[in-house]
Amino acid sequence: MASTARKRFGNRGLVATGAELLEPAAPWLDRTFSSEVTKSLLAPWALHNGLGPDDAASAFITKVIGAAVAFGGMPVPVGGGIKLVEALIGIIKDAGGELLTSADVIKVTTSNGKATGVKLADGREFSATRSVLASVTPQALYQGLLSEEKIPTEITKSADSFRYGRAAIQIHLALSEPPQWKADSRLKDVAIVHILDGMNSLSESVNASNRGWLAKRPTIVVGQPTTVDPSRAPAGTSILWIQLQENPRKILGDLAGEINPGDGSWNEERLNKYADRVLAQVAEQIPNLFNAITAKIVLGPEQIEAMNKNLVGGDPYAGDCRVDQYAPWRPLSAATGHRTPIKNLWHIGASTHPGPGLGGGSGFLVAKRLTQKSFLERIRNR
Questions:
Q1: For residue 196, what is the domain's CATH number?
Q2: Based on the domain organization, do 324 and 269 belong to the same domain?
Q3: Cα-flanking dihedrals φ and ψ of residue 309, to 5°?
Q4: Of 111, 172, 275, 331, which one has the fewest beta carbons inside 10 Å?
Q5: What is the pTM of this model?
C-alpha cells in the first residue's frame, strides 16, 4: 500500500497513507457512518487482532478483517478445529516427518554460533540437518532456550520489555436446542455475532481491562459453529462458544462492584462469577439460553496459558499487538523479522511478524525462505 501510494502520489501520498494506516477505528467510524448500529457492527472486529477502537491502526485492521469476512466468509473445517490439526499432521507425515507431543524443549543446542538441534527436558537430544525453528515468545527464546548463549545486550533488553496484551476467556456451551435470538431470528444463521451496548461501552471495557478492571458490560463474541458445520452437534441441538477479549491478566477491581479482586488471580470463584455475568448478558439476546444449556466449560486466563505457554497470562495473541509491537517492530525493536543472532535458528509464531492468526504467516515466510534455491543453485539448473 505504501509503495503504491508513493508511486501514484509521491512522498506526500506516502505520508498521507501512513496517517491513514495509523488512524484509530473510533474516529474513522464516527466520520464515516451516522448509524450507531453500523458503528457497533464494525468496531469489535479490531478486538480479534488485540486492538481496541481507540488504538492506533485499529481502523486499518477493522477494514482488513471486514473485507476478509465479506469476500472470504468464515470457513471452518468440517468436523471441528481438530480436523485442521490432523490435516497439518498428515502433511508432516507424508513428507517423512514426525510430530512429538508432550516433549518439552529446554534448550537450543549450538556449536560455533550455529544452531545444531534441541534438548528435551527428559534428556533426549535431536540434531538439525539445516535449521531450527522456534515458535515461542521472545522471553522463552532468549531467557530460556538460549539462556546459556551470548546474546547482544540490546536484544536481551528488548526481550525483557516485550509486553503481553489483555487476557482471554472462553466459554463453551452445549445446547438442547438452537439459540432463539430476540432481536432478529436471522441471527441464528450468522457464524459470529458480537453483543455490545455500543461504541462507548466497547471503549470503556477495553480501557478498564488495560487498567486491570473487570468490565460491567463486556463486549461478547458469540460463535455459532453449527451454522456453517451442522455436523458439530446432533440434529436438533446446538453448540456455542463465547469469547471475551477485554479481560485483565491481573484483576485490580470490578466496574460493577460485585467481584472482590482479592489477590488479583483468576481463581475458580472469580472466573465463574464473571462468566455468570456474561451469560446473563447473552441471555438478554437469547431468552432460551439458560433452559437450553446441557453442558458448560469455562476456560480462564490461567487455563488458557496452561494449554499453551506462549499465551502468557491468557493473552491469546502471544504479545501486545499495539503498533509499537507490530509490523516492523515485531517481535522486538532490536530484532525484527525472523532471524536471530544464532545462525540457522529462526524465530516464528504469533509473537513474531506478521502477528497472530490461523494462517501461520510467520512459519510460511520462513519456510519459503528456507526452501528457496540459492543463487548458485539457480545458475546450475539453467
A1: 3.90.660
A2: no
A3: -60, -25
A4: 111
A5: 0.90
